[in-house]
Amino acid sequence: MRFFKQLRSLSWAVLVLFLVGGVVALAKPTLAADLPGKGITVQPGQDNVDGENFQTQIVIKALERLGYDVKDVQNAKYPALHLAVAAGDVTFMADHWNPLHQAFYDKAGGAKKLARFGPYVPNCAQGYLIDKKTADKYHITNIGQFTNPKIAKLFDANGNGKADLAGCVPGWGCERVIEYQMDAFHLRKTVTHNQGEYSAIIADTIARYRAGKPILYYTWTPYWVSGVLVPGKDVTWLQVPHSANPEHRDTKLPNGKNYGFAINEQDIVANKAWVQKNPAAAKLFSVMQVPAVDVSAENLKMQDKGEGGWAAAGRHADAWIQAHQKTFDGWIKAAIAAAK
Predict the structure, then answer these.
(1) For 11-15, 29-33, 133-137, which range has the lowest pLDDT when averaged over its residues?
(2) Predicted confidence (pLDDT) per residue in 164-184, tens digit
């Protein structure tokens, strides 16, 4: 009898272990072999702009979570990057500015070859700013006032009598708008549009501001510059005389103000043929969204020692994902469901 009691006790123990083991097996995360991206290569692309590393890194980490084999990012200027995505040499880019990059999108084949998902980062602004001290003293509110040589000379950095505008890098898209407006607003005789490496130009602009000198510059948000030169405190946005851009787009805001650039969103653009074969990635791209204020906060952190560059952006992306784990997991869940 004692033997049978021990046997019954052992049987119950085995049964309990079996049931517990089954529950644990059901609770296990999806095996890598079950992930929709298993065995599929992804080639990310990006312009070589530090302020966009963070956005690209978050997309890469989400794709890796889905099992995709993500290669090292390829860098190219925006026009070439759109063409590379259309050709399939690059799978996706996470920083297509819509509508600023519309011409690049169209030239690359538009909706026939590209799939555009967004807004990934909504409410992105661009425009011209000057230091608040000079703006208040001379009542400067509009870039059109720079046709006045006396106003323009206040912002002369090299002694030629013309205002120096810290402008946009060729190939970014913003330079097309600025150059168009230089003519439309009759600024050629009084303003010099300085183009080159933006980080160097804006560093010089900030140095001038800190030396108490007037500054005129172009910038965009989200970006770290507005965390250093704070609009409303250190600097002020300038309006424009009227809408003027190569696409003849109306840039007037609902409140009647006009800063010369349409409110943009950063979208994810991917090779259309590839996303049609990868519904999980297509769904992921369609549900991802990162607030512009979060991008600005990360960009400002880049100014801390050791916090700039690709590797640092990866750490920042990991921290953002951890702080928004429920949201991130929701993206992954939706993507996996779309693949079934």
Answers:
(1) 11-15
(2) 999 999 989 999 999 999 999
Band of residue 14 on the pLDDT scale cut at 50, 70, 90: very low
Tokens of 112: 């026939």
Residue 252 tokens, joined: 């007037």
Q: Which residue has the tokens 């994810």?
A: 268
Tell me which residue of 36, 60, 35, 67 sits closest to 46, measured CA to CA. Answer: 60
For residue 13, CA distances in Å to 58, 63, 198, 318 come to: 46, 42, 69, 42
pTM given for the model: 0.85
Scanning the structure block, which residue is given the tokens 């183009």? 195
Match 């512009």 to its residue by tokens. 292
User: Into which CATH architecture does domain 36-122+265-339 fall?
Assistant: 3-Layer(aba) Sandwich (3.40)
274-308, pLDDT tens digit by residue? 999 999 999 999 999 999 999 999 999 998 888 99
φ and ψ at residue 260, rounded to 5 degrees:
90, -15
Provide the CATH number for the domain formed by 124-238 in this structure.
3.40.190.100
**At a CB cut-off of 8 Å and minimum separation 6, what does 236 contact?**
129, 130, 131, 132, 135, 141
Q: What is the radius of gyration, based on Cα positions, of the chain? A: 26
Same-fold call for 36-122+265-339 versus 124-238: yes
- Looking at per-residue confidence, does 56 or 26 come out higher? 56
Contact 175, 168 (CB under 8 A): yes
Give ∠ CA 15-17-22 in degrees, rounded to 5: 95
Q: Percent of the chain beyond pLDDT 90?
A: 86
Give, in order, the Cα–Cα distances in Å from 198 to each of 89, 175, 328: 27, 12, 32
Q: How far apart are the first and last CA of the chain?
A: 54
Structural domain boundaries in the chain:
36-122+265-339, 124-238
CB atoms within 10 A of CB 329: 12
